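This section describes the prediction task in plain terms. A model, or a person checking by hand, is given the sequence of a single protein chain and must write out its three-dimensional structure as a string of tokens. No templates, partner chains or ligands are provided. The sample shown here is typical of the held-out split.
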Amino acid sequence: MKEYSSLVLAYIGDAHYSLTVKRHLIEKDLKVDQLQKHCNQYVSAKAQAAAIDHLLNSNVLSEDEIDVYKRGRNAKSHKAPKNTDVVTYHKSTGFEALWGYLYLGQKWEKLEQIWSLIETMGGD
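The expected answer:
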């Protein structure tokens, strides 16, 4: 796999994670007006920061995966956080970088394992 910067991994991870959430919500046969509300419970910076905290506390991530998360969390972004504090924003960026890393690495089983843990949390 080509080496991508942490922020590029986060960009890709954000897109794929959002699609994953939407796919799972559509499979639940929610009404269209409920989809966005439920989606935001998973894709907000606050929800992603809670998800990565849960994953770290659950000891399901390898050392390499934790390193990818930390690189993403510590990456210098030129974008100021919107609607959240800086710590939460950086954690969510790290989460997105990890998701992008797993997606590009075609780690489908790991992505499903992580999604299952996040889904049991119930979102935000």
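For orientation: The chain has one domain: 6-121.
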